[in-house]
Amino acid sequence: MADEVILLDFWPSMFGMRTRIALEEKNVKFDYREQDLWNKSPILLEMNPVHKKIPVLIHNGKPVCESLIQVEYIDEVWPSKNPLLPSDPYQRAQAKFWGDFIDKKVYASARLIWGAKGEEQEAGKKEFIEILKTLESELGDKIYFGGETFGYVDIALIGFYSWFEAYDKFGNFSIEAECPKLIAWAKRCVERESVAKSLPDSNKIVEFVPVLKKHIGIE
Amino acid sequence: IAQENTYTQTQRTENQTGLTGKMNQEEQVQVLGLWGSPFSKRVEMVLQLKGIPYEYIEEDVYGNKSPMLLKYNPIHKKVPVLVHNGRSIAESLVIVEYIEDTWKTGPTILPQDPYERAMARFWAKYVDEKVMVAMGKAFWGPESEREKERKEAYEGLISLEKEIGDKRFFGGETIGIVDIAADFIGYWLGIVQEVSGVTIMTAEEFPNLKRWSEDFVGNNIIKEVLPPKQKLAALFKTPFRSAATSG
């Protein structure tokens, strides 16, 4: 019986990118369905009634919600190719800790970079750089966050890289100047086919930001 | 490590399963916690459900954070932290999954099937990120925001009421990760509502959750781990700083 895998997603979402990457890493064929977040489809509302958000992974008719939960699910369902999480419990716990850290910290501060002005924006920029530096420190001299192999923490973070050009532009700073090692890591990641296929062009994100701001009603 | 051992000698307390004395150095488990914290208690509940001996160390998180805490959780500087053979893990639900992965004896708190596991993780996250955050702000947040947060928490409880339905526990017949995550709702919430005079969850509107909370708190092992009601009530009468404990 062939697996039916559908992904309800939104092209600029750094969260949706995680799930795309995970599916690509496992070579799983999936039906990508672009969603209009300002006109939510019946299938989105049916499959994620609690949050009404993307990404939603629908596997043989059953929905899985929350991007990092989807990544772990994909790893468990298709275990043989490219393991995404370490098998050692301690390493796995460390990976989940950092995934949780990225979830709690990165988006909120980044949003202030494109979504705020003046002091609030400056505070957001400062916090964002501090968070990236913490991550850079955790990466150290490793190729990927998990060491030699690309995995969960890399997947959790790399989607944000497609937004860096936009952050640079709207924040009027240079992330690369502040965090060169992290940029080097990101460039290594985008060399992977799964990542290259899953991240949109950075200039498209730059064009998208004013559209997004209009939709949510900010100048 | 030698320095930490000296520190913990002076702070050593008998752990709740009654095992004292020297532990096998190969299997040293310590919990840095806070007696009144539902996050901290999640870790102790799972250790005790699985019969894993551990040393409990009370952290003065509101006052002076210990060198041990700062060493083992430098990123968040919060409790709970699990230290296993000298290596630390932080974030209560990450710790709970670590315990599940590491000790293969005792009851399991996650299902085996990947889809069921994803569902359990989804609801545990929902409890933490939607319900717990709103509850914290509803009772202890800025006054101007409390009404809005109460509504958020209430909506969260409606989803949970629906999710548990007729099941004995969120985990089914036995306690699982979602029940553990929802410990605040099962025990702390009733006490906080009584002390504050603010009610979000009534038995009439939430009969499933009410029944669940009685079964949860009534469990032989869980009841031994929970902090005493009077002590918690006294704690809640004073302003509560939630910055010291983490999810």
Automatic annotation (TrEMBL), chain A:
Protein name (database record): Glutathione S-transferase
Entry function: Is involved in the conjugation of reduced glutathione to a wide number of exogenous and endogenous hydrophobic electrophiles.
Pfam families recorded: GST_C_2, GST_N
GTP-binding as UniProt keyword: no
Gene: GSTU4
MF term (GO), any: glutathione transferase activity
PANTHER family xrefs: GLUTATHIONE S-TRANSFERASE U25, GLUTATHIONE S-TRANSFERASE, GST, SUPERFAMILY, GST DOMAIN CONTAINING
Primary localization: cytoplasm
Domain GST C-terminal: 88-208
GO biological process: glutathione metabolic process; toxin catabolic process
Keywords: Cytoplasm, Detoxification, Transferase
PROSITE patterns assigned: GST_CTER, GST_NTER
Family stated for the protein in its record: Belongs to the GST superfamily. Tau family.
InterPro entries: Glutathione-S-Trfase_C-like, Glutathione-S-Trfase_C_sf, Glutathione_S-Trfase, Glutathione_S-Trfase_N, GST_C_Tau, Omega/Tau-like, Thioredoxin-like_sf
UniProt entry tagged with the keyword Protein transport: no
Location in or out of the cell: Cytoplasm, Cytosol
Example of a GO cellular component annotation carried by this entry: cytosol
Occurrences of domain GST N-terminal (ranges): 3-82
Catalytic activity: RX + glutathione = an S-substituted glutathione + a halide anion + H(+)
EC number from the UniProt entry: 2.5.1.18
From TrEMBL, chain B:
Compartments it resides in: Cytoplasm, Cytosol
Pfam families: GST_C, GST_N
GO biological process assignments: glutathione metabolic process; toxin catabolic process
PROSITE patterns: GST_CTER, GST_NTER
Annotated GO MF terms: glutathione transferase activity
Enzyme class: transferase
UniProt xrefs under PANTHER family: GLUTATHIONE S-TRANSFERASE U8, GLUTATHIONE S-TRANSFERASE, GST, SUPERFAMILY, GST DOMAIN CONTAINING
Protein name: glutathione transferase
Protein's organism: Capsella rubella
